[in-house]
Amino acid sequence: MTTTQQQGNALAVWCIVLAYNGIDLTLECLATLRVQDYANLHLLVVDNASTDGTVKTLRAQAPDVEVLPANANLGYAGGNNLGMRHALAHGADLLFLVNNDTRLDPHCVTALVEEIQRAPICGAVGPMVYTWDNWQTISSAGGVVDWAAADAINVGVGEIDQGQYPPRSVDFVNGCGIMVSKAAIERVGLIDERFFMYWEETDWCLRMREAGLDVRFQPTAKMQHKAPLTWQQQSPLTLYYMGRNRLFFFARHGRAPQRVGAVIGATKGLLHGVVQNWRTGNRAASEAARQALIDGVMRRWGRRSLTFSGARM
User: Fold this and answer.
1) Mean pLDDT of 100-113
2) Mean pLDDT of the 17-38 span
3) Backbone conformation region of residue 299, classed left if phi is above 0, alpha if psi is from -120 to 50, else beta
């Protein structure tokens, strides 16, 4: 690992790579983390009970990386919380949560550390996220909560990066790569595990903002993420968690009139998903929207064991 600063003077950054299968992606992600130009960087992989031999392979091929196996699939929230508790107990100053299906520019960590230190009340900061196929097409340039549409929007999706998105405060940053401070966790706590996966980073960031902390986007920090850009490319299970947790998010944030309107909007969106997907023959997506609506109304959060028949291949 090359460095531009003395490790003794650098804040201790623990990079927590969350993995659930996809060992080849995990190894590629780690390869880009090893060449970061930040000195005091500890690599930790939290394995969410993978079935592809991830833990065994990492211990054989990546002995420089600490591996923390979970005893079950804890989702994004539970897996990252497991890693953060471990990191904080071992002296972490900053925690950088990274999905295993990412690749990072060598200056990414340094740019995030500089940004989070530049703003003394900053709780979290995120990088410019590009699509997997190139370093030009934007996947996320920070996020904004659209209360009128009851949605959380990744800014710049599909655009070519021409420098149109400067460093700035945002409502949230994409959870595929988010750096948080120890002080922020002490103030607002860890990720709410009732989300399991999806919307949890948006909730976390808004909790920071509600506690008086800033959430920042820094485009000189760059990473790629292997993720679809549109909902039509998502699996039914993903659509379920996104729909259900959308209801959960808007039921707990915002002023009363704003909150009521957003919950109504999210409910209408799920009803539309039920009907429209059924009409177009996408029965699995229709089932996912229906179950998301039921569980949201019944306040059934956390991990759910669900299958959806008739999924399009």
Assistant:
1) 98
2) 97
3) left
d(CA 155, CA 165): 9
Distance CA 91, CA 237 (A): 37
Q: For 196-241, how does the pLDDT look when each residue is reduced to its tens digit (9 = 90+)? A: 999 999 999 999 999 999 999 999 999 999 987 665 567 888 899 9
Angstrom distance (rounded) from CA 251 to CA 71: 31
pTM of the predicted model, to two decimals?
A: 0.90
Residue 68 DSSP class: E
* Residue 273 in tokens: 């998903």
C-alpha 118/C-alpha 303 separation (Å) is: 37
Would strands 102-104 and 214-225 be described as parallel, antiparallel, or unpaired?
A: antiparallel
Query: Percent of the chain at pLDDT above 90?
Result: 77
Per-residue pLDDT tens over the stretch 145-158: 999 999 999 999 99
Contact 129, 140 (CB under 8 A): yes
| Alpha-carbon torsion (60, 196, 292, 207), positive or negative | negative
Task: Give dist(CA 199, CA 196) in Å, integer.
Answer: 9
- The residue-averaged pLDDT of 261-275 equals 89
Name residues whose C-beta falls within 8 Å of residue 235's C-beta, 6 or more positions apart in sequence. Answer: 311
Domains of the chain, each with CATH number or no CATH: 7-225 (3.90.550.60), 231-298 (no CATH)
At 157, list the tokens.
């999706």
Q: Are 277 and 233 in contact (CB under 8 A)?
A: no
